[in-house]
Amino acid sequence: MNVVRSPRNPLGLVFIFCCSLLLGVSAFSLRHSDPITGGLPAVRRKVSVFAKPETVDRITGILATKFERDAKDIDPECKFLEEFDADNLDEVEVLLSIEEEFDLTIPDYDFAELRTVKAIADYIDRKLEKYTDN
């Protein structure tokens, strides 16, 4: 008699339950992974600092409006969430404003990696270049 397949054996039920949990976790991690890397989890990307000044200015304008600051006082190298003492709601509102301004979608897992204005501007410029190349 097979121990695992026996419905009356509590160890068999535990084994089946654990397997179903593992399969559920695997499916969840694949759904919430980076589609560019083919299902592998998103990795921290090295961000270059070749953002266009116009893009930096537009993002700084969004932050200035949101946090009621003067745009010229916002340093593109600052970590704006810490600098402006922003909470999660502020972060989401900034993301939505940026997406609306540039007419593109930034996945949450990518935006979570972008901490400075320059990093966001560089990401947007690279993404817009991909759209224009296609």
UniProtKB/TrEMBL annotation:
A Pfam short name: PP-binding
Domain of life (superkingdom): Eukaryota
Keyword Signal attributed: yes
Keyword Phosphoprotein: yes
SUPFAM superfamilies: ACP-like
Domain annotation Carrier: ranges: 53-128
Any coiled-coil regions, as ranges: none
Annotated GO MF terms: acyl binding; acyl carrier activity
Gene3D superfamilies: ACP-like (1.10.1200.10)
UniProt signal peptide: 1-27
Keywords: Fatty acid biosynthesis, Fatty acid metabolism, Lipid biosynthesis, Lipid metabolism, Phosphopantetheine, Phosphoprotein, Signal
InterPro entries in the cross-refs: ACP, ACP-like_sf, PP-bd_ACP
Function, in words: Carrier of the growing fatty acid chain in fatty acid biosynthesis.
HAMAP family to which the protein is assigned, alphabetical: Acyl_carrier
Family: Belongs to the acyl carrier protein (ACP) family.
Annotated protein name in UniProt: Acyl carrier protein
UniProt organism field: Babesia ovis
